[in-house]
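Researcher: Structure prediction, please.
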Amino acid sequence: MLAELMVITHSAAIACASAAHDAGLGSPMASTHLVHLERLTAAYLAEMTMLDRHRGKPTQQQVIVKRVDVSDGGQAIVGHVNASNNPSNSQPKHQGMPPLSGNE
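Model: Predicted structure follows.
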């Protein structure tokens, strides 16, 4: 039943996207279709979350790196790195040990 609902939601979202495109950029009808598209994609995301919960998948994934080899001239970050969507913070924040130098 959930899979059927997801197919219907996806089809309706595609129809809204197509209708918004056909209505033309900036028209009131396109804005209405885009609002509906936003709601449908939010509903689809909620349905995907429900499906993952039903399958027993964890809500967050974790990656553990056990070994890192850094060759001469290479650089590595040791510690926790937070991803940021802010373009002004494009450089990762270094935490933990300082970078390795070639003399050590």
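Model: Residues 2-55 form one domain.
Researcher: Thanks, that helps.
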